[in-house]
Specification:
Structural class: mainly alpha
Order of helices and strands: HHH
Strand content: under 5%
Number of strands: 0
């Protein structure tokens, strides 16, 4: 099992305090990790194939 709890602390200074609600950076990182692990070349293409 991989612990992704470090992600929020690493990118905390990149997110603003006002504006639209963003996707949790931990979720984004997990998605990117899984796409890399499964060797997915394109998220768009994987959705339609």
């Amino acid at each position: 099992m991989v612990d992704f709890s470090f992600v929020r602390d690493e990118v905390a200074d990149k997110y603003g305090s006002n504006g639209n609600v963003s996707v949790d950076p931990k979720v984004v990182f997990k998605l990117m990790y899984l796409l890399f692990w499964d060797d997915v070349k394109s998220v768009f293409k994987s959705m339609y194939n």
